[in-house]
Amino acid sequence: MFYFGNGFDKRTLYIILGVIAAAYLLSAGTGFLIEIVLTLPAVVIAMSFHEYAHAWMADKLGDYTPRSQGRLTLNPIAHIDPIGLVLLFFVHIGWGRPVEINPNNFTSNKSRSTCEMLVSFAGPAMNFILAIIFTVIYYLLLTYAPDTQISIILLNIVIYTIAINIGLGVFNLIPLPPLDGEKIFRRFLPYNAIQWLDNNANLLQFIFMLLWFLGLLGKIVSPIITFISNMLFNGVGAIFGLFF
């Protein structure tokens, strides 16, 4: 196990990850490389919009911390963490740069806990909105795009974008730290339960990592993701069948 403390040069870490990624790509063959090319736009869109939504909601509620840190933008460079991006492809768990907020700055007439919940919920909500938008785009392409290789590639990118946004939205609603779901869930808990969550944050994060490592998280969220995907495609598909 390696621990990268504050004194560790991030450039060195990036080089190490780059070497690992290059070695993996060489051994995995062209199929995996094609998959990365098709999923990279989807991942960048999902992560960038997710983090932007957190920043936008905090800004609307009166906390300008994300704005001052340059996070109120859709520019992926402001939101993508290179390490989290690389690990997402190779170990299937990753992260973007978390949006920092200062709850003391909220000027909304809503309670502080409600404002924090809204900021946390904005990320997954944005992913579900994107999934709906790209499902509409999918059926527009399917209905009107010419049958060419470019259209097939675009359809695949759109399908990946839908799947990743639904997956990211559902996954982040799991009520365990460090996910958004924990911050949303705690809004409805009594004070003693919130104190327990705060005192046991490290334990809960360990449980989260253990569940992910054992593959149990995937088994929990996969049926939910499948259900939402089917409902979305069937619903939008029915609309297209009626009006197009």
What does this protein look like?
With 244 residues, this protein is mainly α. It has one domain. The chain has eleven helices and no strands. The chain has helices at residues 10-28, 30-60, 65-68, 76-79, 82-90, 112-144, 149-171, 180-185, 191-199, 201-213, 216-243. Helix 2 (30-60) packs across helix 6 and helix 7 (149-171) packs across helix 11 (216-243). It is globular, with a radius of gyration of 20 Å. It starts with 9 loop residues before the first helix and ends with a helix. The relative contact order is 0.10. Residues 1-9 have low confidence and may be disordered.
Quick take:
The chain has 244 residues and is mainly alpha-helical. It contains 11 helices and no strands.
Report the average pLDDT across residues: 85
Structural class: mainly alpha
Count of structural domains: 1
Give the overall shape, derived from the CA principal axes.
globular
* Count of separate DSSP helical elements: 11
- For the report, how would you describe the main beta sheet? none
Please estimate the helix content. Answer: over 70%
How would you spell out the order of helices and strands?
Answer: HHHHHHHHHHH
Number of strands: 0
Q: How much of the residues is beta strand, in percent?
A: under 5%
Radius of gyration: 20 Å
Low-pLDDT stretches are 1-9
Cα-to-Cα separation, first versus last residue:
56 Å
